[in-house]
Model the fold of this input.
Amino acid sequence: MALSRVRLLYIGAVLVSGIAIGFLMWRQPHLQQSAVPPAAWPFAVSLILDLVIGQLAAQGKAEPLTMTDRFVAVIGAGLIVTAMIALG
Done:
């Protein structure tokens, strides 16, 4: 099954957010001590994008996301953040 443009954009956006969060943790290490661990921050990005895409899918303008899309994006972004923190 081929991925639609919206699904690819979602996965790419969440993965890029993982890079951005990792870079932020590298520049501001004190943020690593926040109540929510930085590796979980991509969940918030995913939630916002998922809500927008869900509305578009309800209107018939986009294909809905699958759990595999969400899993790949969030776990991938979390691993990126974790790796950047470990190497930084």
Q: What stands out?
A: Residues 5-27 form the longest helix (23 residues). The mean pLDDT is 94.
